[in-house]
Amino acid sequence: MPRADFQVVIGLEVHAQLLTSTKLFSGASTSFGGDPNAHTSIVCLGLPGVLPVLNQRAVELALSAGHALECTIAERSEWSRKHYFYPDLPKGYQITQYEFPICLGGRVVFDGPEGEKTVRLTRIHMEEDAGKLVHQGAVSLVDLNRAGTPLLEIVSEPELRSADDAVEYLKALRDVLVWVGVNDGNLEEGSFRCDANVSVMRHGATTFGTRCELKNLNSFRFIKQAIEIEASRQVELLEGGGKVEQETRLFDPQRGETRSMRSKEDAHDYRYFPDPDLPPLLLSKARIEQARQALPELPRARRRRYVEALGLPPYDAGVLTADRAMSELFERCLAEVGEAKPVSNWFMGELSRLLNETKTSVAEVKFTPTQFAAVLRAVKDGVVSGPGAKELFAELFATGKDPHAIIAEKGLAQVNDDGPLLEAIAQAMAEAPKNVESYRNGNTKIVGAFVGAVMKKLGGKGNPRRINELLVEKLKA
Ligand code: ADP
Ligand code: MG
User: Fold this and answer.
1) Parallel, antiparallel, or unpaired: how do β-strands 115-128 and 150-156 relate?
2) What is the pLDDT at residue 1?
């Protein structure tokens, strides 16, 4: 297909559920699942005469997100009613921020194949979610558990130029939101959702083409597929002399196509106006600044610091910052140990393996950073051997017991004294006189077999470096 002439243009609208325990304007629970309509209140049900009360926690989270994405925070934002009729919206309107959103501008930085890229944000606003319909044969049922759940809508400028970049943008955005504790990043459960606006234009064109908005993109794979399929459809249409109509299209992953949901002619007049039940949201400079100060170091900055200040390979930095809890534990262990690379090796190796194998989360880890440091010191000081250290760490991971007690209990102490080492060497040499002779005739490689034999006599606990030194001495004699 002659795609080379065309450039795809993408702008994304992300809906991210704020991690509050209650809804945006009521005390009803936001927990996922539950019996239908179990998590509702007179406010979510839209009963007459009730009044919404703004959840301040949702505002705090929106502030964190805004700062983390380098937005300008508005000292005054406003709540509007967006009117439409649908059975999952009992009030007949959605409360959202329209003319005056809480955050303006901002950016998402991500790594593309050609290096770092920045896509600017238009705005971020807060709004409430609607309920959902459950279709059962001839009837449709209404579940309002989700109605009134606080959302952030994060709107990008039309600056993305490929489906791959769109996915990288979304992953970076999700990383930041999850990192600052604003969102759980779950696409499957719908707590991180994305609509993609897609248009195409000829290379060198100065105006954008007409866009279509794609819905139903609930995995990164679908997002990539849908954008690519939609861009191809538009290119084919234009090349065939046709015209792209502005419309909302639904991605059908089974058929691998997008199809029209509603055209521009069906566009609603939402009759936005400021909600008379809610005063404007006023944020003092001090409160905005306080939220900025409270922000943790963000994953990209931390990755850079790990490479530049700690001297870790970029790969290590990526693994260690993939998860905030993991990274925080690394920080605390590093503070005790002082040297980054050994800590990183243990985290990427044994710790990750044990966490996976036992399906344990970092939050459930039983050892303290001091205990972790004691294991590394035991290795460094030759108190335990390499394999012994692994056994020691596994036991520490399982029990959280004092590492020195584990070494004593499990007999993990490495034999460093020359006495027992020489005894074992003498035995091993006496048992294999031919090998001794072979060594003395120049086959120095055979020392390996002796190390193995000596180690076996010592139950694997001999200090291998010292065994080697002593063996060479004795074999030469
Ligand atoms: P609406 O409110 O109808 O969705 P907006 O103007 O808010 O319209 O735009 C929504 C999204 O569409 C934004 O993310 C924006 O970047 C994107 N967008 C606007 N024009 C285009 C275009 N020509 N091609 C691709 N995306 C676009
Ligand atoms: Mg839109």
Assistant:
1) antiparallel
2) 43
Tell me the two tokens of residue 81. Answer: 């009613």
Distance 385 CA to ligand 2 centre (A): 61
Give the end of a domain, one of 252, 267, 287: 287
How far apart CA 413 and CA 328 sit, in angstroms, is 31
Ligand 1 midpoint to CA 317 (Å): 35
Whether 238 and 165 map to the same domain: the answer is: yes
Residues 240 and 384 placed together within one structural domain of the fold? no
Distance from C-alpha of 109 to C-alpha of 168, rounded to nearest angstrom: 9
Q: Which two tokens stand for residue 155?
A: 């709107």
* Tens-place pLDDT, residues 264-303: 766 778 999 999 999 999 999 999 999 999 999 999 999 9
Mutation to probe ligand 1, out of 15, 96, 155 (largest number of atoms < 8 A from CB): 155
pTM greater than the 0.85 cutoff: yes
Q: Name all residues whose Cβ lies below 6 A of ligand 1.
A: 9-13, 155-158, 197-199, 208, 211
Q: Are residues 349 and 267 in the same domain?
A: no
Q: Of ligand 1's atoms, which has the minimum distance to the CA of residue 158?
A: 16
Closest ligand, as measured to the CA of 101:
1
